[in-house]
C-alpha cells in the first residue's frame, strides 16, 4: 500500500524568531510570527535529489507542511545534483536567481559559507534542539565556529548485494575484505554465470579503497596533499585489479558508469555493488530484483588497514541574500522538513538515513531492517575534510577513476595528476608530497 505523509506532526505554533548573519555582516532579526496561518511568503527551494526516485516524497512533505502553513508557497525546483554547486555559486555571486533554500551536499557548506553566501543560523529556532542531531553530520554545517545549515540526511557507501545470487552460489555471508570479494566474485561467476561486482568509475566510489589502506586526499593539519601517497596507490591498484581480473565488470564509459551499475544490479545481472542508501527505493521498486527482502547490506570490505567509507549526505541551507521578510517562513519550512517525524517518513519511504537521534525511536525507523543494516555502516564512516575546497576534490578524482578503471592507465601516474591539479587549482597553499 502506498504510504502518505498524513499523520506527520506539524510544527507547534510558537513564535519563530531568527537572528541571521550573512558571513562577515552584522546580524539582523527576522520578523516574528506567532500564528502559522498568518505567516505569508513565497520561497524557492532547489532540491538536488533524484527527481524520479526521491522527489515525489519531498513533494508530499511540502503538501503536509502547507496544511499548517497555507500561506507559505514553496516553489519546488528540481536541480540536477551535478549542476547545482556551480549554479548556486554563479547565482549567489550575481545576486540574482539564487534559491531561498538549497539542499546542499555536505562538502558544499564550508565553501558557500566562506564566500558569504549562507545565513549564519546560530541562535535560530533551527538550532534550538541541536543536540538531537548526530555530531558527525552536524559537523559538516560548521565553518569558523559558526553554523550555516542543518543535516537533512546522512549516508555512506556500503556493499550492497543480491541475497538470492549469494545463496545460489553457496556464499553464506558478505565478504569482509577486497580479497574475499575477488574470491566471491569468481565463485558467483562459476556457479551462477552472473558477474560478481561492479565498481562505479567515479572518484567518490574509490574512496573505500583509499581509506582501506589508511590513506586520504589531504592532511588538513599539516596542509599537505597526500592523494598520491603510497597507501593510496596501493588502494587504487586493488580496485584496478578487480576490474582487470574480471572480478568486477569493466565500466563501459565514465558517462554511463553509474546508470549501468544500477541497471545491472536491479536486473540481477551483477551480484555486488558499492553504493548508498539513496538507492534503496530504486532497488525496492525494480520489478526484476525480487523485492527489498532480496537486498543485502554490509560494510564496505576492508583493505590492509581497515574498512572505511566516506561520510556523505545533504544539508538544508539558506541563501544569505534572501529577502529579510522571508526568513521566518524559511525557518518554519526547514524546521518541518528536518523534524524527526519528517525524517522518519523519508526513511520509511525512501530508505534515507535520519540525522536526528530521536528519529530512530520512531517505530517506522526502529523496525526498518534496511535502516538498521546501514546504521553500523555510517557509524564507521570516515569524515571528509570540512574545508571550503572540499567540494572541489572530485573532478580530478573522477578523471583518475576513468583513467584507471576504463583506460587502464598507470595508477601512480594518474594519482600524480590528481595531486598536481590539487596543487595548481584547488588547495594551492598546501604542500605537495
TrEMBL record:
Gene3D superfamilies: Periplasmic binding protein-like II. The keyword Transport applies. GO terms for molecular function: maltose binding. It comes from the Bacteria. InterPro entries: SBP (IPR006059). Residues 1-22 form the signal peptide. One of its GO terms (cellular component) is ATP-binding cassette (ABC) transporter complex, substrate-binding subunit-containing. The keyword Ribosomal protein does not apply. Keywords: Signal, Transport. It holds the Pfam family SBP_bac_1. GO terms for biological process: maltodextrin transmembrane transport; maltose transport. PROSITE patterns: PROKAR_LIPOPROTEIN. Belongs to the bacterial solute-binding protein 1 family. PANTHER family: MALTOSE-BINDING PERIPLASMIC PROTEIN (PTHR30061), MALTOSE_MALTODEXTRIN-BINDING PERIPLASMIC PROTEIN (PTHR30061:SF50). This is Sugar ABC transporter substrate-binding protein. It comes from Catellatospora coxensis.
Amino acid at each position: 500500500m502506498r504510504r502518505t505523509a498524513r499523520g506527520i506532526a506539524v510544527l507547534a505554533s510558537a513564535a519563530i524568531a531568527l537572528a541571521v548573519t550573512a558571513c562577515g555582516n552584522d546580524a539582523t532579526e527576522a520578523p516574528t510570527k506567532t500564528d502559522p496561518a498568518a505567516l505569508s511568503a513565497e520561497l524557492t527551494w532547489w532540491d538536488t535529489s533524484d527527481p524520479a526516485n526521491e522527489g515525489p516524497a519531498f513533494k508530499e512533505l511540502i503538501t503536509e507542511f502547507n496544511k499548517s502553513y497555507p500561506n507559505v508557497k514553496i516553489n519546488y525546483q528540481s536541480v540536477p545534483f551535478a549542476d547545482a554547486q556551480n549554479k548556486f555559486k554563479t547565482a549567489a555571486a550575481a545576486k540574482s536567481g539564487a534559491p531561498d533554500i538549497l539542499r546542499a551536499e555536505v562538502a558544499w557548506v564550508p565553501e558557500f559559507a566562506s564566500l558569504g553566501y549562507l545565513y549564519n543560523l546560530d541562535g535560530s529556532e533551527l538550532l534550538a534542539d541541536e543536540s538531537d542531531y548526530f555530531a558527525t553530520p552536524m559537523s559538516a554545517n560548521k565553518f569558523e565556529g559558526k553554523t550555516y545549515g542543518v543535516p537533512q540526511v546522512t549516508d555512506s557507501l556500503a556493499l550492497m548485494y543480491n541475497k538470492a545470487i549469494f545463496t545460489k552460489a553457496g556464499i553464506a555471508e558478505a565478504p569482509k575484505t577486497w580479497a574475499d570479494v575477488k574470491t566471491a566474485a569468481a565463485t558467483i561467476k562459476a556457479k551462477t554465470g552472473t558477474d560478481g561486482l561492479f565498481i562505479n568509475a567515479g572518484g567518490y566510489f574509490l574512496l573505500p579503497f583509499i581509506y582501506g589502506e589508511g590513506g586520504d586526499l589531504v592532511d588538513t593539519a599539516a596542509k599537505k596533499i597526500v592523494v598520491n601517497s603510497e597507501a593510496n596507490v596501493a588502494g587504487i591498484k586493488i580496485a584496478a585489479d578487480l576490474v582487470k581480473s574480471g572480478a568486477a565488470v569493466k565500466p563501459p564509459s565514465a558517462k554511463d558508469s553509474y546508470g549501468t551499475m544500477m541497471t545491472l544490479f536491479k536486473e540481477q545481472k551483477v551480484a555486488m555493488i558499492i553504493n548508498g542508501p539513496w538507492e534503496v527505493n530504486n532497488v525496492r521498486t525494480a520489478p526484476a530484483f525480487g523485492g527489498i527482502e532480496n537486498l543485502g547490506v554490509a560494510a564496505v570490505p576492508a583493505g590492509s588497514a581497515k574498512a572505511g567509507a566516506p561520510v556523505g549526505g545533504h544539508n538544508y541551507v539558506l541563501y544569505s541574500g534572501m529577502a529579510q521578510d522571508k526568513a521566518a517562513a524559511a525557518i518554519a519550512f526547514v524546521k518541518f522538513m528536518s523534524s524527526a517525524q519528517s525524517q522518519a517518513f523519508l526513511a520509511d519511504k525512501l530508505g534515507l538515513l535520519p540525522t536526528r537521534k530521536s528519529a530512530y525511536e520512531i517505530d517506522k525507523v526502529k523496525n526498518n531492517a534496511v535502516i538498521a543494516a546501514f546504521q553500523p555502516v555510517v557509524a564507521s564512516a570516515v569524515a571528509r575534510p570540512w574545508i571550503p575546497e572540499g567540494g572541489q576534490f572530485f573532478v580530478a578524482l573522477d578523471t583518475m577513476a576513468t583513467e584507471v578503471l576504463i583506460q587502464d592507465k598507470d595508477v601512480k601516474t594518474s594519482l600524480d595528476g590528481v595531486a598536481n591539479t590539487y596543487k595548481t587549482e584547488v588547495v594551492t597553499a598546501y604542500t605537495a608530497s
